[in-house]
Specification:
Glutaredoxin; four-stranded mixed sheet
């Protein structure tokens, strides 16, 4: 091609047009980016995004949520906190994050009880809570505590050998009690012998397996509480009801006269046939919504609903068809014998009852086992999640059912003993020997020259 002044002008014009169009395209993309936002989390397990449970929790908040982080602009906590809470701001539009330098405003920091750099204060619905450590689990629990009503209590009956909410024996509920408090439940104990009335602000009354005869006067108080539309959670067990038969008759529930057994629990690596596994839950039940993990019930009895009780019933926990209610002694080889009164599964071990009294829906939950929440078995499969669901539903906190937080699945690396030995051999011996031999080879080669 012959270069002429005209061709030079054309080439210059093409270059100028290309630059103009390039800048125009860049500007157009920048303008479109202000209108349309796309974010993607490619980390394993989406660890840089809020879990669906946290997103659902934020969706239950009807009022603005305010976070105040007490850290300076040059602190090591400033940028990580800003990145962490940006995930919440992207989900909840009325989420507000502000920073306060404790050194520049010490009076405000002292008024909030700030004692260290990086602490944060959450404020919601006129209430506030301070967090020393920030994680999705900690923030989620704090939000649940702030969102629950301040004047409603879960009351546990005591005085007749019930499971202790603070005890640390295997049969006690101490570990579960800590979980309830972490989720914002306000827990109180009630001995009807010392305080002969159920407090008016009781959101839920819990009967956790008495082991001594309950006096008739106390039973009458419990029946009056139920008649006044009080919510009840009854964690039953195989064996006698210790004087609570009138209460069971009032709500129309009959406890089985025996213990449930499942001869095929060995498939799960369990040698005790008294441990009942529930692998499936009804999809229509509000109490088990979102649950997928197996729950285990060590030593349970069956439940039956009497006809004409006037309650809406939901059998949310049922055993497998291979199980049965053993009415005889659990000694030696146990086998199903219908002639002796044994009942073949599937059988109910969890009942949810509701009825409308005026403009109030009364809720009662009865289980045929209380050990599944005991310290010894709380960590088994889905027992903890199931227990929290029961308390949330029975206390009318449905919004918190199926809300939990998850840890990122790639935080730890599990290696077998063989893998550890191979890695140690390669990095401690083989690689050093390889580099040493290479060095000697290079030295010998240079020396021969």
């Amino acid at each position: 091609m012959q270069v002429t002044p005209r061709s030079r002008r054309q080439l210059l014009f093409q270059n100028i047009l290309f630059v103009v169009l390039l800048f125009a395209a860049a500007g157009l993309l920048g303008w479109l980016s202000t209108l349309y936002v796309y974010q993607a989390d490619w980390t394993y397990g989406h660890r840089d995004s809020l879990s669906p449970a946290s997103v659902k929790l934020l969706g239950t908040l009807k009022e603005p949520l305010t976070i105040t982080a007490y850290t300076g602009p040059r602190s090591q906590f400033h940028d990580p906190l800003q990145r962490f809470f940006a995930k919440y701001q992207s989900v909840k539009p009325d989420f507000t994050l502000s920073f306060v330098d404790p050194d520049a405003d010490p009076q405000r920091a002292r008024s909030q009880g700030i004692t260290g750099d990086g602490q944060v204060v959450l404020q919601y619905h006129g209430r506030s809570e301070k967090l020393d450590q920030v994680s999705e689990a900690e923030v989620g629990n704090a939000i649940q505590r702030l969102a629950r009503s301040a004047d409603r209590y879960v009351v546990f009956l005591t005085g007749d050998g019930e499971r202790s909410l603070t005890g640390m024996h295997n049969f006690d509920l101490g570990a579960f009690g800590k979980q309830l408090e972490a989720k914002g439940f306000k827990i109180e104990s009630l001995n009807l012998a010392a305080n002969p009335s159920v407090p008016e602000n009781t959101s839920l009354l819990v009967i956790a397996g008495p082991q001594a005869q309950v006096l008739p006067g106390m039973v009458r108080m419990l029946r009056d509480y139920v008649k006044r539309a009080g919510n009840l959670l009854w964690l039953g067990d195989p064996g006698p009801l210790y004087g609570l038969e009138p209460l069971a008759a009032d709500i129309g529930v009959q406890f089985g006269a025996g213990t449930l057994v499942d001869p095929e629990t060995q498939l799960f690596g369990i040698n005790d046939p008294k441990i009942i596994m529930v692998p499936k839950y009804p999809e229509t039940s509000a109490l088990t919504r979102g649950l997928s993990a197996i729950s285990a019930f060590p030593g349970a009895t069956s439940l039956e609903m009497k006809p004409g009780s006037g309650w809406q019933q939901d059998a949310f926990l049922t055993t497998l068809p291979r199980s049965w209610l053993e009415t005889g002694r659990l000694e030696g080889a146990v086998s199903y014998d219908p002639k002796s009164g044994d009942k073949l599964g599937p059988l109910t071990i969890g009942l949810a009852l509701t009825r409308e009294l005026g403009d109030h829906e009364q809720r009662i939950v009865v289980t045929g086992d209380g050990d599944f929440l005991a310290n010894q078995y709380l960590g088994t499969a889905g027992n903890l999640d199931l227990g929290l669901n029961l308390f949330n539903w029975a206390s009318h906190d449905d919004a918190f059912i199926d809300i939990d937080t998850r840890a990122a699945p790639d935080l730890s690396l599990g290696l077998t003993t063989t893998a550890q030995a191979v890695i140690g051999l390669v990095f401690l011996f083989l690689l050093p020997l390889f580099f040493l031999s290479m060095g000697i080879a290079v030295w010998l080669r240079r020396r021969r020259r």
